[in-house]
Structure formats: C-alpha cells, structure tokens
Description:
Layout: H1 4-20, H2 28-34, E1 44-49, H3 61-67, E2 71-77, E3 95-96, E4 103-106, E5 124-128, H4 139-153, E6 156-160, H5 197-206, E7 217-221, H6 249-258, E8 278-281, H7 286-294, E9 301-308, E10 320-327, H8 335-349, H9 358-365, H10 368-374, H11 388-398
Parallel strand pairs: 1-2, 1-5, 2-4, 5-6, 6-7
Antiparallel strand pairs: 3-4, 8-10, 9-10
Amino acid sequence: MMDSKFLSLLLSLSLFAASNSQPRVKLGNDLLVENPLDLLKGKRVGLVINHTARLSSGEFLVDVLMQKGMNIVALFGPEHGVRGEASAGEKVSDTKDEKTGIPIFSLYGKIRKPTTEMLTNIDVLVYDIQDVGARFYTYISTMGLAMEAAAEKGIPFIVLDRPNPLGGLKIDGPIMEDSLNSFVGMYPIPVVYGLTCGELATMINEEGWLKDKVKCKLSVIKMEGWKREMLWNDTGLTWIPPSPNIKTPATAFVYPATCFIEATNVSEGRGTEKPFQYIGAPFIKGEELSSSLGKLKLPGVKFSPVEFTPSSSKFKGELCRGVFVEVSDARKFEAVRTGVALISEMLGLYPSQVKINRTGFVRLMGSSLIHDVLVKGVATMKGLPAWREEVFKYKRESLKYHLYK
C-alpha cells in the first residue's frame, strides 16, 4: 500500500501543477491588457460585465484595468448582476460595487438597455461576459442592446472575445421567427448558433439587426489559440459558472435541450446539485421514462432513472422522480431534437399530468409550429417542421463573420 504521506505529497504536487498550467487559449481580455490598452487610455470607460470577466490568470478585469490606471467610471450588470449572485429572473437594482465604489447600472430590471443618461460620462463601452452558446441565454440580448445604445450615442463598443463552450461547429434548432422577438430571443439565429460573442456581435452589426439598422463602432479583441472544433474542456480555461444554475461545462452542453422544460410543469432540476440534468416530477416514473427515451437511441446522450428533492423552484421539498440527462458525446449530441423528444415522451406517458405553457415554450423555441405539432401527439420528430434548410442558410451567411478557423 502507498505511504499516506507520499500520497498526500503527490496530490499536493498535482494540484499545484494543475493550478499553474497554462491554458491553451488566451482570452480577449488577456490581449487587451497585454497590448492595446491605448484603446482605453485617457478615456472614461464603461464595462458591461459580470463575475466571469476574469483573465485566464483568474484576475478580475476591473481590478487589473484600475491597477493599470484606466478610468473605469461605470459598470453595467446583466441578468444575475455584476457579481453573479442574483437568481434567474430576479430583478437587479442599481448600486455601487462594494470593492471599488464604481456605480453599477442594472441592465436586468425595468431598464435593459443603457440609457443616454447612463452613458453621459462614458467615452467607450467594453463587453466581457462568458456566454453558453444558446440563443435564449440572455447575455447576448444584453450585448445587442448595449451595442445599440453605443451606436445611438456614437461611442465605440469593444467586445473582449471568449470561447463558445459548445464549440464553433455545432448549429441546431429553428431560426427565431420575427414575431417571437423577446429578451430570450432578439435575433434571427438558431437555438445553438455556433459563434463566439465577438463573431455574433459582428453579425448583428453587419446584418442590420440593431434597432433602425444603426451600426456601432465595433471592435473585437480576438482570442489566441481558439479553434472552432474546441469544446470548453479543450481550452484549458477554468470554468466559472456564468449563472447560478450553469454549474459545470456538462450543464452548458445539456442546457440547450433541457431549458425547454422550463415551459412545462416538470422540474428542470433547479434547487438540486444537477440543474438542467435532473428532469422530473412527483407523478413521473423514472424507470419508465428512462426506458422510453432509451428506445429512441438519440445520439450523444444517455438517460438514467433518478430521484431528487428540489430545495427551491418547482416541487420545492417534494420527492421527484425522473431522468438524469447526460451528454456522452457533445459532438454528436442534437440538443433541440433531444429536448423535443423528452417533452414528447413525457406527454405520451403522462398526458393528463404534463402541461406545456405555450407562450413560454414558443418563446424559447422561436417557433410556434413545433409546439402545435407536439401537443397533437405526433411521435418524436415525425411530422415536426424541418429546420434544416433554415440552418443551412444561416451556416452559409454566418461563415463571413468567422474570426477563427
């Protein structure tokens, strides 16, 4: 048996090595700090950020810029706030940053777009927020509205680019219908859109998707070392949960599929250690649902029976049964197909108990047709409107905005 002291030493050495290993990807904020700080010198800077705005070293962008003498005059916080502590949907108020004393303007409450008054003393806006690559994750809506405000004010807008955790090759789901425009879907892009935030910002700007087709003075500080085939775990970067319920990269992979459960009366696992991976309700039989889903042989995903008791949200304090959704091969996984299949099977097994909020589902999916076919009891994906032609067109159009190979 290995000596316990030696084992402890080995563990300490491995942790030290891991903490000091260099990530394979340099973030846009790394490059901003290292090279073109002249973009900010002598200017009054506003930062659209949250707690993920950290360099690959782990340092908070605000702290580093202030140490280098930059004049940070305002912070703008998205859903969950600048420090990332607010729950999903919780309104965030204007305040001051406790550490720096810099005013914080909330962009998730009554106001979601920086006002003229907020931008009065700002010469340049900088955006640095980690996204998850799903259309209904609201940070890209905040980015677009901030771009719009910057354009109207005539001030530059700088995106510090970051990896898309799902990679830059996966595109999935219908293009959002114009009539369904909302804060969880502001642009005609698929559910899984396959671009970095810098690439998406460029597409939004150049395609005329901002209000009244205004264009902002956009700059993107590119990453170094990122390639389109990279998933999050390939980057060597530390995962910082971008919101309280996207705890791990594994959650981010499954989120574009299971977020649709939010529009049902079934728990999506909020209030558990595996949100968006635990799916269930008191009336569901885990073995039955798991077996039914397994027969579909959906690519890149596994389902296993699970029991859980949420500490918050739906069925708080009640024993739920259902399935644990695990992405086994992210490159083969078809998120939207899986999400539709999951709801379809639950409707088939528990028709009198599973309810879908049509408005919520349609807003998330970006398509009214898919809901209407689902509730008619059509078997999984059979008879569902195909979005392949839409996706093919989007792929072709988005190619010109690729900043990475």
